[in-house]
Amino acid sequence: MTRYNAWNVFKNGLTGQKGWDRAWRDPEPRSEYDVIIVGAGLHGLATAYYLAKEHGLKNVAVVEKGWLGGGNAGRNTTIVRSNYMLPGNRQFYEKSLSLWENLTNELNYNVMFSQRAHITLLHSPAARDAAARRYNTMRNTGSDGELWDLAKLKKEVPHLNYNNSRFPIMGAAVQPRAGNARHDAVAWGYARGADMQGVDILQNREVTAIKRENGRVTGVETSRGFIKGKKVALAVAGNSSRLWQMAGFNTLPIETHKLQAFVSEPLKPLLDQVVVFGVGHAHFYISQSDKGGMVFGGDIDWYKSYAQRGNLPLVQDVAECAVSMMPCIGRVRLLRHWSGVMDMSMDGSPFICKTPIDNLYLNAGWNYGGFKASPASGWYFSDLIANDRPDPVIAGHTLDRFQRGYIIDERGAGPDPKLHG
Amino acid sequence: MIRINCPFCGERDHAEFNYGGDATIEYPALDAPVEDWVQAVYERENIRGVQFETWHHQFGCRMWIVVERDTMTHEIHSVRPAHEGIGSALKGAGQ
Ligand SMILES: Cc1cc2nc3c(=O)[nH]c(=O)nc-3n(C[C@H](O)[C@H](O)[C@H](O)COP(=O)(O)OP(=O)(O)OC[C@H]3O[C@@H](n4cnc5c(N)ncnc54)[C@H](O)[C@@H]3O)c2cc1C
Ligand SMILES: [Zn+2]
Q1: pLDDT (tens digit, 9 = 90+) per residue, A172-200?
Q2: N- to C-terminal Cα distance for chain A?
Q3: Less crowded by CB within 10 Å, the N or C end of chain B?
Q4: Is A242 at the interface with chain B, CB within 8 A?
């Protein structure tokens, strides 16, 4: 595999770009794998990568029904931050952010991680108090966080609507180390890195059944034949309930909902940071891609859906938020909008855990915050699969936390999956 | 836009309604074992396909209704009031 470096770019520039290998193979399945991961999204690919790299498990397959990175991996608005406060989440997302900071080097693939700061606008004294508590917790646990007053915010982000009389902006809670990355590059980087270490990525194979014998999983039936595996790990984002039922179980604390995202025509540099607006049911976040497009989104479509296409009322809601927050983009044209289906969990937090079947592992419930989580998700999930015990950081991210009364509800929204972000 | 045929108001855009959730959940008795409550409050079948679900006609008659809808295609197969007999009870009240 050709490494990506300045010398190879230079050399290939002089030799007609003929010296590059393909980034990953398209292999036929082996007779048996030590670990089969279902789902070649960011979480499945990162898990495979760290299984090989950190745990020496290289006889690993990632089975994907479509093409790798074609699910939520390639549909999200790419926001990376670690402003989570509750025990477990706090350490988990901080670990993820620290992995992001070295990911381009780690993968020898430019994931274009840009720590441009994540700015949450504050509109009331109560919101400012809550933010002070959250961001102080972050500062006291090894992270960064700042509270900006209006003068500082106006200087840094001049184009917001500072005359909104309904929701006047009072200041902002800011995480300077947060930012964006290029989502496709993250999927491709992990895929290439896993493949380089011998992991087989098996695309265009839908898992249709999970085979069991004597209380253990023996492999997965796919649209192109049976694949045998010693351990099976699920990382299928919005389809977790379906795979769960293939494994013979019934229910999960999850509902599948869809979220839309939008990108505008490219503009000259306008917005240097990620800016988030959220009051009650209004929710909006925006950043500018390196190509110049304004990338933004809002809430889920509010009703349960497995359809990977969005509905128009939300387009209107998001557009209204956009022009009320940044009136200057009112006449910018929308280039594309799309939607992805996600596991919305009952407390808004994920599951990285063992299951009642000893050699079946679950990675699910990422709501719409699983992009930032990908590196740590792969890190801790691979550790769980390899060593059959959870790291203390994810020990609380189990399915039985509801029964035990240890929910991890960052928003305090209660057991209604659509209310969690 | 999904069009929901409200039994009280007729066909309306879904934007007039709030989605509730799974309409098949039966809440157990107050003194039922905690497992039963966990099942009712937190666990979902999360069907891809036709399910019964509750909606609230918030910007209309404000009634709760039960909609039989495909969660993959959004096709609606039936709509009825959430509370049996509420339609005729209301008719009586209006007279
Ligand atoms: C519009 C949108 C915006 C978002 N914005 C952000 C954001 O700004 N920041 C953030 O942190 N998170 C964000 N998210 C959430 C984030 O994208 C997801 O939580 C994360 O990508 C989920 O993990 P994944 O990448 O592994 O999922 P996916 O990429 O969806 O991977 C799951 C894979 O499983 C495959 N699969 C499913 N069923 C089967 C089967 N039967 N057999 C084989 N394969 C199967 C799918 O094809 C898919 O490729 C957003 C999500 C959406 C939809
Ligand atoms: Zn009505």
Answers
A1: 999 999 999 999 999 999 999 999 999 99
A2: 40
A3: C
A4: yes
User: What is the residue with the minimal CA distance to atom 2 of ligand 1?
Assistant: A76
Instruction: Give me the long-range contacts of A206-215 (CB less than 8 A, separation at least 24).
Output: A206/A65, A207/A38, A207/A63, A207/A65, A207/A243, A207/A246, A208/A246, A209/A246, A210/A243, A210/A246, A210/A247, A210/A248, A210/A360, A212/A247, A212/A248, A212/A357, A215/A357, A215/A358
CB contact at 8 A, A420 and A95 = no
- The pLDDT assigned to A6 comes to 95
Distance CA B42, CA A252 (A): 8
CATH class of the domain comprising B16-27+34-93:
alpha beta
DSSP, residue by residue, A305-327: ---SS--HHHHHHHHHHHHHH-G
Residue whose C-alpha is closest to residue A2's, from A30, A31, A32, A22: A22
- Residues within 6 Å of ligand 1 by CB: A 38-44, 63-66, 70-73, 75-79, 206-207, 235-237, 239, 259-261, 297, 340, 342, 366, 368-372
Which of A241, A312, A416 comes nearest B46 by C-beta? A241
What are the pLDDT digits (tens) for A127-165?
999 999 999 999 999 999 999 999 999 999 999 999 988
pLDDT, residue A41, reads 98
- Asked if A254 and B14 come within 8 Å (Cβ–Cβ), the reply is no
Q: What is the pLDDT of residue B94?
A: 52
Residues forming beta bridges with residue A304, ordered by sequence position: A257
Report CA A401 to chain centroid distance, whole Å.
22
Pairing of the two strands A118-122 and A274-279: parallel
Mean pLDDT over the full length of chain A: 97
Segment A195-206 shows an average pLDDT of: 98
Instruction: Tell me if A324 sits within 8 A of A161, measured CB to CB.
Output: yes
Query: Do residue B44 and residue A312 have CB atoms under 8 angstroms apart?
Result: no
Residue B93's pLDDT is: 63
- Domain boundaries defined on chain B: 16-27+34-93
From B2, B34, B41, residue closest to A415, measured CB to CB: B41
Mean pLDDT along residues A61-71: 98
Ligand 2 midpoint to CA B58 (Å): 8
Res. A281: pLDDT tops 80? no
By alpha-carbon position, which residue is closest to atom 32 of ligand 1?
A: A236
Whether A252 has its CB under 8 Å from any CB of chain B: the answer is yes
Classify the C-alpha dihedral A40-A197-A376-A262 as positive or negative. negative
Asked if A234 is an interface residue toward chain B (Cβ–Cβ < 8 A), one would say no
Q: Name the DSSP class of A356.
A: S
Name chain B contacts of A305, Cβ cutoff 8 Å: 71-72, 74
B85 — pLDDT class (breaks 50, 70, 90) = confident
Averaged pLDDT, A41-54: 98
Cβ neighbour number for residue A388 with a 10 Å cutoff = 12
Residue pair A191/A185 in contact (Cβ under 8 Å)? The answer is no
Please report the pLDDT score of residue A55 as a whole number. Answer: 98
